[in-house]
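# step 3/5: fold
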Amino acid sequence: MRAPNADLACGLAGAVGMLAAVPDMPVVVRVLLGVPLVLFLPGFAAVRAVLPPWSPLRPETLLAALGAALALSVCAATLLAVTVGLSGQALALTLGAVTVAAAGTARFRRVRHPAKHLRTPWRERLPPKHVGRPWLGR
């Protein structure tokens, strides 16, 4: 499954998720914005930034995003608790910033290195066998 704008959507969702830090917002809205921000969005953006630009979305990618999001949330909460103090607002802003930065990195990689070579068979992309072996002569 191809999702060319998944990085942009994730970055936008991360920016909207930072609204969970607004203190006067109703609790239900803050929870609806905060749960994806803790459980999915930072991990999805990080996995998309790390994977090669030509990799499609698969169930494995989504499960890796869930695990990465949980790991990033724990790391961010630990760092906030040690440095400035842990609060819901600080965690929402930190995870939103991580999501936007990772989604921007993923989008930059996909624009800079488009998946042009997907249509060629993988054997044609391999270098010839004699490359790096001058004793084979050719």
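# step 4/5: annotate
DSSP finds six helices and no strands in the chain.
# step 5/5: archive (pending)
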